[in-house]
Amino acid sequence: MPARRRILATAVVAAACLGAQALSGTTAAAADTVVSRGVTIPAFYTPPATLPAADGAVIRSEPLPLALSLPSIDGPLPGRATRLMYKSTDAGGQPVAVTGAYIEPTADWRGAGPRPLVVVAPGTMGQGDQCAASLGLEHPLLLNGQTMSVGYEDVAVYRLLSSGVAVVVSDYVGLGATDRLHTYVNRVDEAHAVLDAARAARSLSGASVAPDSPVGLFGYSQGGGATAAAAELQPSYAPDVTLSGTYSGAPPADLTEVTKAIDGSELAGALGWSLNGFLQSDPSLRPIAEAHLNAAGKAALADLSTMCVGDALLGYGFSHSTKWTTDGTSLSDIIAATPALRAFLDEQRIGLLKPAGPVRVATGVSDNLVPHAQARRLAVDWCHKGADVTYKAVVLPDVGSALLNHFAPLLTDQGDAVSWLTDRLSGKPATSNCWSMPVQP
């Protein structure tokens, strides 16, 4: 087997072990449901025509069976789950329905005060509605190609629930909810979805969290960018959601750098998700982008728009965007040369605002998929603004796979990350190590 195919096969196995599974098929509309790559999305995920006025208002809810069992976990997640749809506001200021799941722990909270709540922002799942994290909690197994995606944060969810911490998982804008395409790595959409998930959980009938419950955020990779953006936007968007602590692992803070890194990697399909999401957020960019795409590029974007991670690894691993453009120019070079596209990516930059509450930023020094340097730059930028930052550089050897270099720190650092977050939820002060880094960006 050629070396690249061996690496890709290893990456696919690793993604499966972490829960990043996939489907295959096509997308088509039905009367009250959507069929995405052969999987019927329940009617629950179709938003109503009219949404509530208040951000975080629960639109609908229903019991969610937890079918999840991981090799490292004896039995399912220790809690009772509720499927959610709640109202949020997108980056354009328009109302949007977002889905997710609230999990009530079976364990008691042994800390002081009311039971705390953690919003878990999933890492990259894909762009098809069947990839939504809330669906993955119900249907985690890969059986004859019929599966949902499962988040690689599920061990962290288990740890939180076992500590008596309530968890709410957001599916993000357009992932699960069938009215639009997922706006992958749009910082405002993700931040609002995360913060409104906390509001929804606190107002959910039967939930044991209260309006004064401590709130924490946990996310890695795409989720790390989402929690980082949420910490920055909380003071202006959700002043009622006081953050006790935010964990941001491997955050894609600078999409210009991340776009360069993923081109030609195992996760090259994320280029398509990113561009699809940008065009969903700002349709005025579509003529500009499509002018540079050849038939293969347009077909790849359409195909990827319904894929989960596993399919993208197999179908588009190690693809180069030069094969998708009319003149063989890479997407990164096109973005750099196109003011409107460059300005859009600049608007997605995380690190320009001071985050609320203490934050823990972790990044692997060998991570060349979501590059270590740009994640560390986020911590330095925040330190320069006077934020309470705990920065962790995870030192692991380069194993020759960008995907494995990216995900290994999630597993090795996760226990410490959860402990750090539960300490903040218990009222223990954080100890910033900004002193160890240059404060000038």
Automatic annotation (TrEMBL):
InterPro entries: AB_hydrolase_fold (IPR029058), Lipase_secreted (IPR005152), TAT_signal (IPR006311). The keyword Signal applies. Pfam families: LIP. Keywords: Signal. It comes from the Bacteria. Residues 1-22 form the signal peptide. This is Lipase family protein. It comes from Streptomyces caeni.
